[in-house]
Write a structure and sequence with these properties.
Largest sheet: 8 strands, parallel, barrel
Strand content: 5-15%
Low-confidence stretches: none
Number of helices: 10
CATH topology: TIM Barrel
CATH architecture: Alpha-Beta Barrel
Distance between the termini: 35 Å
Structural class: alpha/beta
Order of helices and strands: EEEHEHEHEHEHEHEHHEHH
CATH class: Alpha Beta
Strand order of the largest sheet: 3-4-5-6-7-8-9-10
Length: 323
């Protein structure tokens, strides 16, 4: 089966490949690894590459894409590239310059998808996480609807083919959907989503509005001290996932990825390990039974790996809502 044909239609008529390659790596990982892993992923068949300004590796990821175009593996329009607008650029006048900065780093003319990374504005400036002298986050007050209008202008200018959001709860999505004079609906909402946090209510809400749910941390999460609650159990060690994996002669990671595809969720698989990158492409080679799906649904415990307590005082903190 050709993974490049495995796409879901977005509400603007464009198509997103249902399996994406995640490029985030912690600071201590050399940036050159993002270059090598992305090149390998494209060679292995990945066509959807997910990155962000926050990851500080768009230069390397862009280089990888351009080198695979140069060697004839892909054409630019074979690749679906996602970037994200960071929280320090949510003021409307900063949106386009932020996207232009990403494009300059990437050395690409456009991104396929540009999304608001978090609905929480922070003080503009060079610091990714601006703090006061007591180490507290410095918030900014921005109307997300005005940020969205600036995103719409980026789409009109051809700098982003599609626009969407990430980490929004249903009320924040409603706010944009109900905006007077809305020109384009968000095509997606990218959120943490895995068998321990299956986001079924948010998924139903998004489907009802024609918005695609994109899952990050779909395999649980990398155990990163700064971002992840390390006390939580490791998803891929779950006995039920192990049993279903054994039955299908697959890895627990493939079961977790396949689960999302069968729910109509676009799923991101993050790995810099070549063996696992290749293995993740096998997600199209088998199918889970309705019984498997129901059993995996039963694992849900609304457990968030991403530790966002640092942001929880922000007036627009999205995770206090049930969904």
């Amino acid at each position: 089966m050709d993974p490049r044909r495995q796409c879901q239609e977005l509400n603007d008529g464009r198509f997103i490949p249902v399996l994406g390659f995640g490029t985030y790596a912690p600071e201590e990982v050399p940036k050159s690894e993002a270059l090598e892993a992305t090149k390998f992923a494209i060679g292995a068949g990945f066509r959807h590459i997910d990155c962000a300004y926050l990851y500080q590796n768009e230069e390397q990821v862009g280089q990888a894409i351009r080198s695979k175009i140069a060697d004839g593996t892909v054409k630019r329009d074979d690749i679906f590239y996602t970037s994200k607008l960071w929280c320090t650029f949510l003021r409307p006048e900063l949106v386009r310059p932020a996207l232009e900065k990403s494009l300059k780093d990437l050395q690409l003319d456009y991104v396929d998808l540009y999304i608001i990374h978090f609905p929480m504005a922070m003080k503009p400036g060079e610091d990714l996480l601006p703090k006061d002298e007591n180490g507290k986050l410095i918030c900014d007050t921005v109307d997300l609807c005005s940020t969205w209008e600036a995103m719409e202008k980026c789409k009109d200018a051809g700098l982003a083919k599609s626009i969407g959001v990430s980490n929004f709860n249903h009320k924040q999505l409603e706010k944009i959907l109900n905006k007077p004079g809305l020109k384009y609906k968000p095509v997606c909402n990218q959120v943490e989503c895995h068998p321990y946090m299956n986001q079924s209510k948010l998924l139903d809400f998004c489907k009802s509005k024609g918005i695609v749910l994109v899952a990050y941390s779909a395999l649980g999460s990398q155990r990163l001290e700064n971002w992840v609650n390390l006390r939580l159990p490791v998803l891929l060690d779950d006995p039920l996932l192990g049993a279903i994996a054994k039955k299908h002669k697959r890895s627990p990671a493939l079961i977790a990825l396949r689960y999302q595809l069968q729910r109509g969720v676009v799923v991101l698989a993050k790995s810099y390990n070549k063996k696992r990158i290749k293995e993740n492409m096998q997600v199209f080679d088998f199918e889970l039974t309705p019984e498997d799906m129901k059993a995996i649904d039963g694992l849900n415990r609304n457990m968030r790996y991403l530790d966002t307590t640092y942001f929880s005082d922000h007036p627009d903190y999205p995770f206090s809502e049930e969904y």
